[in-house]
Amino acid sequence: MIIAGFATCGKSVLGKKYSNVLDLESSNYKHNNAEIENVPVEMRKGTKREINKDWPDNYYKAINEAVKKYDVILVQLKPEHLDYFDKNNIKYSIAYPNINNWEEVKKRCINRGNNENFINRLKDVFIPYYEDALQRNYENLYIINENETLESVLIENNVKLK
User: Fold this and answer.
1) What does pTM read for this prediction?
2) Chain-centre distance for alpha carbon 146
3) What is the DSSP letter of 34?
4) Which CATH number covers residue 94?
5) Which of 64, 96, 140, 141 has the maximum number of C-beta atoms within 10 A of its C-beta?
6) Is 81 exposed, middle or buried (0-12, 13-18, 19+ CB in 10 A)?
7) How many domains does the chain fold into?
8) At residue 149, does pLDDT exceed 80?
9) What is the mean pLDDT of residues 15-43?
10) Edge to edge, what strands does the sheet with 141-144 contain?
11) pLDDT (tens digit per residue) in 128-148
């Protein structure tokens, strides 16, 4: 099962907690991080970095390999990734924060160490990405409310996490 999740849904936490879940953090594939590999991933976001010449094919290859090894693969929700899934008939679900909870998303970004540039870019795409996602060929739409996590929503929907 592939779940394309918007930022702050809890992908990283879920990926660290369960052995059958992989959080496929996209920035490790998109950017050349050699000079800042000691900087935590969340603090890298929103900084200027060199784009990896193999992006996004290296990310799609990693996703296709991960589905052979994990029950749940968590990926970045971006229209271009959903285009790839739709074009290649790859089944996926979507996880999104409640559209009325931008302040909760912002708070989660601050708590995990994202910079202002990243938060502002996220705010700019918050509603457009949601509207785009609704038009897609997804299997399930998981809405994360203010006091929920991706984990709690998946458990509530009988997704097996182990």
Assistant:
1) 0.89
2) 17
3) G
4) 3.40.50.300
5) 96
6) buried
7) 1
8) yes
9) 80
10) 21-23, 72-76, 2-5, 93-97, 141-144
11) 999 999 999 999 999 999 889
